[in-house]
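Quick note —
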Amino acid sequence: MTQKEYKQLQYNYVHCAGTGCKRSGECMRHTAYKAFVESTRQSCNTTNPSVITGSQPCPLFDLERQETYAWGITNIYDNIRVADLHRARQEVKSIFGSKTYYDVKLQRRPITEAEQKEIRQALTEMGYDGKAIEFDRYEQQNPVFMRMYRKK
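Predicted structure written out below.
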């Protein structure tokens, strides 16, 4: 994790020193802790070392992984017949809700992989090729960094 990425973490994100944990190498909380040690930040929230024993599944484990997020939905309607356009928009809007739909449309909020799958499924059920659906752009990112968008 770079220092630029570290600065994007929510201030209250819980860090873990990973002492005695076998999975610390794949845990985002431990990666954040290592970045904290290298930063100029004076303090951070940390886990209680007695809870992280390594012998049980860690209740705070946060897998360090990448997910593909999509931004923008203007292109998903390109191959929809005019007669179906209103229904297609309603189907997509029902996945997000009205406010979030417009945030997604204006690219103020990303679309998760699960939401992309739901959109493709909804359009497939309408008789379109859901696999051919393309969003405006894509970004690989750790879900931890994207949580700030999802809470809006």
